[in-house]
Amino acid sequence: MRPTPNRRAPWTIAAVFGLMSGLLAFVVLVVAGAARAQQQVQPLVADLSKHLVAITTAFSGTDVLLFGATDGPGDLVLVVRGPPTRKVVRKKARVAGLIWANRDSVTFDNVPAFYQVFASRPLDKIAPASLYSRHQIGTEHLTFTLADKSVTDSFVPGFRAALVRLKKKQELYGSRILPVTQLANRLFRAELHFPANIATGAYRVEVYLIRDGDVVSAEITPLIISKIGLGAEIFDFAHNRAALYGLTAIIVAMVTGWLAAIVLRRN
Amino acid sequence: MQIYLPIAEMSVNVFVILGMGWGIGFLSGAFGVGGGFLMTPMLMFLGVPPPVAVGTGANQIVASSVSGVIAHTRRGNVDFRMGGVLLVGGLLGSTAGVWLFAVLQRLGQIDLAISLSYVVFLGIVGGLMFVESLQAVVRSRRRGSRSRNGAGRHSWIHGLPFKMRFRKSKLYISALLPGAVGFFVGVLTAIMGVGGGFVMVPAMIYLLGMPTQVVVGTSLFQIIFVTANTTFLQATMNQTVDVVLAILLLLGAVIGAQAGAQAGARLKSEQLRVLLAALVLAVCGKLAYDLVATPEDVFSLVLEAS
Questions:
Q1: Which label site among B42, B43, B225, B282 has the fewest CB atoms less than 10 Å from its CB?
Q2: Which residue of B has its CA nearest to A85?
Q3: In total, how many domains does chain A have?
């Protein structure tokens, strides 16, 4: 007669169980996952302190904690990848020997909006370059695609290098050695910093456990960065009802100007 | 105190923006220029993307111009009839300018076109004003009285048809003349993303021969509608109007505009023109230097919607 409570019952038990012994539940899940992968123990588990970064009006950058455990010693490489975008790199040249103007340009697709690598040691000491190239680890291994195939290959590398350099300057690209902390060769944690100029979208946090120059295990965790609250509403309004938004902006400006003239006259 | 701008997609210091707005508002009130020619480069310097700087700047100028026009109307310094004729030309001109902007954008040279028009027009306008107003200051010092700037001259201009009487401006000239000035400034407005006051004000003084007192208010009156038009076009075509940024700027600007209008009323018109000319020349010099100097990085990065 009343199926709802019946259906709810196992969930309630699970919730209580989870609350009382979160760690145990975690181990059960890990074991379940490992069993599916036909392995004795999952060599690597990792998670983020939050899976949603909310960009509110007061947003000025944020830190997300990545934490996890390994089944023993090994090198860790973390990669944070932002959503793919299209970027145009322009190069200035002297025109008529006097004025600097944009002349050549190359358009790249599949450019991650954000890209950071963290490693427990310098990358070249952990594994051969072929491994990094396979997993696109390190800015030199990112495979941008050319939007315009007719571009001559000879000057593309210079533009590619400039793209990476400019992204690094904006603190959107980088690779660091330090911030992965390993405890007793088992537990690790890393503080991932996202600056205020971060793009919204679906991010991927990849963790690689590397032993003897080979990836033993990898874990991919999604991270969503999105606008929340008033900022998000303004953004949606501006994009979905552009004409109304434009009129509103004009009216707000006119009323403010008018009010200011009245108020300041009285003073 | 940091605040995140939803359209520009970056976070900025509230007080920096408020201060910038105040400064722009002051100029607007004192000189009758919208201040866009300063605001757009300053916003870009803060890291605001150029299209957002242009679109938001236009929106902010609407507010400070409304405030300025009200202040000037109280003193009877707005020639609405002249403003109306300028406006008709201005709206036609900005439509043509938007089309020209699109052509230049296709050619990939819009940045250069913007910089070059700034340098050329700021240079011409600033230079002419500076020389003329310095002479006027010297003359008024010597004789204690100010001479009229060539309005009484009779030339082919006075033979044009559609003559109209502009009582406030003490002019009886062909409507084609202010219409053409409005059109030309309208084209510049669309390309340079500014109200166009810095071109309009000198054009009204030197080409139309209007009295300086009336020029400022009338220019502001016309700017309200041209910048409102730009705001609407930018909002609908590019979604580059950031209301949060605009509101912060205009909070500072409306206060600055009142202070500017009072300061402007205290200064003699010759002094006003020397100061405006010096300001225009300074901005022109900076932009010209940027065009000619070897850039720090010859590469630049542009995001393109895929």
A1: B282
A2: B306
A3: 2
User: Is the residue at A72 inside a domain?
Assistant: yes
* Distance separating alpha carbons of residues B301 and A167, to the nearest angstrom: 9
User: Rounded CA gap, B260 and B247, in Å?
Assistant: 19
Q: Do A109 and A239 sit in the same domain of this protein?
A: no
At A95, which amino acid appears? V
Cα B62 from Cα B222, distance rounded (Å): 10
- Rounded CA-CA distance B257/B259 in Å is 5
Strand arrangement, sheet containing A62-70 = A44-48, A62-70, A187-194, A181-183
Same domain, A191 and A256: no
CB–CB of B30/B260 below 8 Å?
A: yes
Residue B236 has its nearest CB partner, among A165, A167, A242, at A242
Rg (CA), chain B: 19
Minimum-distance CB partner of B4 among A57, A98, A238? A57
DSSP A147: S
Q: From the CA of B303, how many Å to the nearest CA of chain A?
A: 5
Domain contains A97: yes
Give tens-digit pLDDT for B149-178.
444 455 666 666 677 777 777 777 777 888
What crossing angle do the helices spanning B14-31 and B36-45 adopt, rounded to 10°? 160
Question: Residues with Cβ < 8 Å from A89, sequence gap 6 or more?
Answer: A105, A106, A107, A108, A159, A160, A162, A163, A166, B299, B300, B301, B302
Alpha-carbon gap, residue A107 to A85, rounded angstroms? 11
| CA gap B124, B130 in Å, rounded | 10
| Secondary structure of residue A211 in the 3-state scheme | strand
Residues A187 and A252 in one domain: no
Check residue B254 and give its pLDDT.
74
Q: Which two tokens stand for residue B240?
A: 């580059």
Global pTM exceeds 0.90:
no
Low-confidence ranges of chain A (pLDDT < 70): 1-41, 149-154, 177-182, 264-267
**pLDDT tens digits for A197-211?**
888 899 999 999 998
pLDDT > 90 fraction of chain B, expressed in percent and rounded: 2
Residues of chain A with C-beta less than 8 angstroms from the C-beta of B302: 87-90
A105 and A235 belong to one structural domain: no
Interface list for B 244-273 with A (CB within 8 A): 244, 246-247, 250-251, 254-255, 257-258
Residue A14 lies in a domain: no
**Containing domain of residue A245, as a range?**
229-262
User: Does residue A130 sit in the same domain as residue A240?
Assistant: no
Q: What is the CATH number of the domain that holds A196?
A: 2.60.40.1930
Residues A133 and A257 in one domain: no
Give the pair of three-digit tokens for residue B31: 């000189």
Say which DSSP state A241 is in: S
Q: Which amino acid is at A43?
A: P
Residue A219 sits in the same domain as residue A256: no
Cα A195 to Cα A206: distance, rounded to the nearest angstrom? 19
Q: Which two tokens stand for residue B257?
A: 């505009």
pLDDT of residue A1: 42
